[in-house]
Amino acid sequence: MLNSAKPSVVSAEPEPITLDWPATALLIIDMQRDFMEPGGFGETLGNDVSQLARAVKPIGAVLTAARDSGMLVIHTREGHLPDLSDAPPAKIERGTPSLRIGDPGPMGRILIRGEAGHDIVPELYPLDSEIVIDKPGKGAFYATELGEVLEKYGIENLLVCGVTTEVCVNTTVREANDRGYRCVVISDGCASYFPEFHEMGLKMIKAQGGIFGWVADSAAVLEAMRVSTT
Asked: Is 30 a catalytic residue?
């Protein structure tokens, strides 16, 4: 179990990072049907949602290891109240999507809490014991209880993955960095509708000596977790 494991080194960029596992949580960002599946918000914006599927298997592997080890697991979901009182007009009105936030779609109202499309994909569905943070914005700290949760559990390090790399993942990592958390972004556990944005999003995080955090692939994270318990 990682709650009694010794610290270990994750092979990462721009340099290896030593993690104290009892003070580390897995944060899975917005792996929701509205972003991942046809008919959801991502597709209404004209995106190829199949681009995001590549992140599911790597996240699943780390999620399984985290569960087996007793690591704190936190899932986030972006979405809004049914009356849209927490959705700024500028967000609802931007662009020319085929359906806007709140409109009826194949999986219920687009990006609305409680609708089928707002929920997490079956492959990564949270256990009843895991924490789910509902957020109205792109960052997981804005207007949520995430900061209080991390403080309660004594978390100092975050393993971050999810979608999309350049939007909700990057925004959350930047918010976390400003709050003093050390973030390791799982490169193959993130994805974007635009592969070039995924690549640049990761580069932004690890640039200038890790200005926002570290980047490692799932294999490196899994190996470090294994080493810490042997």
From this structure: yes
